[in-house]
Every structure is written in C-alpha cells, then in structure tokens.
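Can anyone check this?
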Amino acid sequence: MSILPRQPGWWFEDIIVGRTYDFGAALVSAEDIALFHERFAPNLPLKASEKGREGAGPRAAESHIYALWRRMLWEETREWPVLQRLGQDALRYYKAVYAGEELSVRLTFLATEDRNDREGVLTASHEVQDQDGLLVMSVMTRTLMAKRPPKAG
C-alpha cells in the first residue's frame, strides 16, 4: 500500500488504482452530539455512558458519523474536478464513537472506468478511522470525474 501526499485538484488521469490517500480531521464533541441528536435524530437515545465506557461522554449516532465523513470528503475534494457523485454502496459501521474522539479518512482508489475523452468514473473505498487507527465506518463510492483539458494550441 502506498500512502499519497495531499494533492488538490486531482484529475481523472492522475488516479492510480491501488493507491491510498489519507485526509481529514473531525473532532467529535459532546455539544455537536447533543445538537445532532436534537435536530436530526430525536428518536435515538442519547446515552451519557455505556458499560465499559464510563466517563467517555455521549455516543454519536451513526448518521452523525456519516455526516462527518461527508463533510471531510467535501472539504478535501472541493478542488477536484468532480462532475457528479454517482452512488454509495456497502456502508458499514464497526464501532461506536464517543465525545472527544477524532476521526479521519483513508481513501483507496479501487478502479477507474474510462468513459470518453472528457470524463471517467472512479470507484473508491473510504474508511473512517478513529485517533487510534481503528475502523469506525466504511463505504464504497462511484464518482464521475473530469479529465484534464487539452492544452491550447
């Protein structure tokens, strides 16, 4: 596995299948957990602590973790030539996240599909990890990306 450095504005032809790219930092705060539960998940129980996790603070809802991943992805790829997000598959949650934990993303380029001279589709695996490198959530995505425009004459 090869970890790539941060690079804004990757074009479709810059993608190397099999490469891994790390990014993001999202601190999960007790205040954000409470706000998320109040506004978006009022039906979910807001547990102050769970057995074996006393003093850990409240637990974030899975939909909150998903929202944090989407924010980190948008922040990292807003300079990329993304034409359309085509889909997400195989969404999985592996462990709970509590207030005070920090999340990041490991993106692995799985496949590219050349569409035409202007665009292609990237299939990627995203792994959300906690500060200890433990897997929290994973999802596969398909993204339509632009190719680098030809140089003028």
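Reply from J.R.: I decoded it. The helical segments are 30-40, 62-77.
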